[in-house]
Design goal:
This protein is mainly α. Helices cover 55% and strands 2% of the residues. The strands form 2 sheets. It has a two-stranded antiparallel sheet. It has a two-stranded antiparallel ribbon with strand order 3-4. The mean pLDDT is 91.
C-alpha cells in the first residue's frame, strides 16, 4: 500500500512510537484501566435506586442501550450529515456519523485505558437532538426560536433535553455531560476535565446554554476523559468523511483540497490524528494533540468550511427559502397547539407518542408549559424527508424548493 503523504502536514506521523506501543501492550496484558478512567460504579443518576451497575449490564452499557432504543436514535438515519436532496445511499447520514465517532473514540480510549462503555454511550447520543438539514437546519431553527423566546437552540443542548427530559430515561450524568460538551465545532489542542460533580451544577450549565448560547457553549469542558476523547473524535470522524461525501456528490473533485489527498484524507486523518492523540495523552490526566497535528486539524476544518459547508444546497442557493419554511412551519405548529387541534401532526406524531412513552415511567410531557419549546422539540426531531413532506403538505408551493435527484441523475421536482 502506498504511504499517504499530506502536503500540508508531512511531519505528522501515522504510527505510534515503539515506546508508546510497548506501554499500551503492557497495560493490556495487565488488564488495567488508566487511573483517570471513569469507573462503572461512579455513575451518577437522577434516580440512584434504578439502573444499578451489574456484571451483566454495567452502568454505561445501560446508557448506550437506552439511547439506541429511543425513536429519536432511529430517526438519525434520516437526517443529513452535510448534503441534502440527493439520492445516494453512500452519503453519510447522522446515524452513521455517531457510529463513526464511537469507533474512533473507542480506538483512542482503548489505547488510553479508558471506559469504553461510557465512550460509546456519549458518542451514540451526542447528536440525537440534531435538526434536519445539518448545521444549516440548526441555524434556521435557532433563528426562529430565538426571535420568539430570546433563548438559543443548539443541537448539543437539545440532545441532552431528548435524553434527559423528552424520553426521561435516567441517563447518567457522565453521559449527559459528555453529550452537551461534545462541541465538534470548537477544536482545542488540549482538553482538560471540568470537575463537575453533580446534577445541581449540571442543570445550571444546561440552563445557561439555553439562555446565553455560544457564550456558554464555547466554554464547556467535559467532566470525564471519556467525554474529552469523544469531543476530539467527533472532529476526526467528520473531517475526511465529509470530503469523501462532497466528492461523491459531485460538489468537489479529488484535486479540490490543498493537502493533495482528496478523498484519501479520511484514511490519513483516521491514522494520523488518532495516533497523535494517543501519543500525546497516554498516562496523562488530559487529552492533548501535538502542535503540528492540531494546526493541521484546524487548517483542514477551515478548508472544509470554505469549500464544502458554506457553499452548497441548504447552505447556499436554497438558504433563504428553506429558512422561511422553518419560520412558517414553526408558526403553523404553534397555532395547532393554541387550537388544541388533536388531529394535527404535532399531536399525532410528537406529543401523543411521547406521552405514551413517558407514562410507562410515571412521567408526562409538559408541553403546555412552553408551547414554543414544544414546537422546537417537534421540528428538531424531524428527519429531512419528514420536514420536506410536511412542508409540501401544508404549503404546496414549497414543492418547487425541494429538487429530488433520482438514482439515475435526473433532477426532478415534486
Amino acid at each position: 500500500m502506498t504511504k499517504l503523504c499530506n502536503a500540508c502536514a508531512p511531519d505528522v506521523p501515522l504510527s505510534l512510537s515503539p515506546e508508546t506501543e510497548r506501554r499500551i501492550a503492557e497495560q493490556r496484558r495487565q488488564g488495567a484501566l488508566s487511573p483517570y478512567a471513569t469507573a462503572d460504579d461512579a455513575a451518577i443518576r437522577r434516580d440512584q435506586t434504578h439502573d444499578q451497575n451489574s456484571p451483566l449490564r454495567p452502568a454505561f452499557v445501560r446508557d448506550a442501550e437506552k439511547i439506541m432504543h429511543m425513536p429519536a436514535y432511529n430517526r438519525m438515519s434520516g437526517k443529513t450529515q452535510v448534503f441534502s436532496f440527493r439520492a445516494n445511499d453512500d452519503l453519510c447520514r447522522r446515524g452513521l456519523h455517531v457510529q463513526l465517532v464511537a469507533r474512533v473514540a473507542r480506538d483512542i480510549g482503548r489505547a488510553l485505558g479508558l471506559n469504553l462503555d461510557l465512550i460509546e454511550a456519549i458518542a451514540l447520543g451526542h447528536d440525537i437532538g440534531h435538526t434536519p438539514f445539518g448545521h444549516a437546519g440548526e441555524r434556521f431553527l435557532n433563528d426562529v426560536y430565538h426571535r420568539r423566546t430570546g433563548r438559543w437552540f443548539f443541537h448539543n443542548v437539545q440532545s441532552v433535553r431528548v435524553l434527559d427530559v423528552l424520553y426521561d430515561r435516567n441517563i447518567s450524568l457522565q453521559t449527559l455531560d459528555g453529550v452537551i460538551c461534545h462541541n465538534g465545532e470548537f477544536e482545542q489542542q488540549r482538553f482538560s476535565t471540568s470537575g463537575l460533580a453533580g446534577f445541581a451544577e449540571f442543570d445550571q450549565v444546561v440552563e445557561r446554554c439555553w439562555e446565553c448560547g455560544d457564550e456558554a457553549i464555547g466554554h464547556l469542558r467535559p467532566m470525564t476523559l471519556e467525554g474529552c476523547v469523544v469531543r476530539v473524535s467527533d472532529i476526526i470522524a467528520y473531517l475526511g468523511k465529509d470530503r469523501q461525501d462532497a466528492i461523491r456528490a459531485g460538489l468537489c473533485t479529488e484535486d479540490t483540497f490543498n493537502d493533495g489527498l482528496g478523498g484519501a484524507y479520511n484514511l490519513w486523518a483516521l491514522g494520523a490524528f488518532v495516533t497523535d492523540v494517543i501519543e500525546n495523552s497516554l498516562g496523562k490526566d488530559h487529552i492533548q494533540m501535538s502542535e503540528a497535528a492540531f494546526a493541521e486539524m484546524s487548517r483542514a476544518k477551515r478548508e472544509n468550511y470554505e469549500k464544502i459547508y458554506g457553499a452548497k444546497e441548504v447552505n447556499g442557493e436554497f438558504s433563504a427559502e428553506v429558512a422561511e419554511l422553518f419560520e412558517r412551519l414553526f408558526e403553523y405548529e404553534l397555532e395547532s397547539l393554541e387550537r388544541q387541534d388533536r388531529s394535527a401532526a404535532i399531536f399525532a406524531h410528537h406529543i401523543e407518542p411521547l406521552e405514551r412513552h413517558l407514562a410507562h415511567y410515571g412521567h408526562s410531557y409538559a408541553w403546555q408549559d412552553d408551547p414554543n419549546q414544544c414546537v422546537c422539540d417537534f421540528i428538531a426531531a424531524m428527519s429531512d424527508d419528514y420536514f420536506m413532506a410536511t412542508c409540501e403538505e401544508l404549503f404546496p408551493e414549497a414543492r418547487r424548493l425541494f429538487p429530488r435527484r433520482t438514482y439515475f441523475g435526473e433532477l426532478v421536482h415534486a
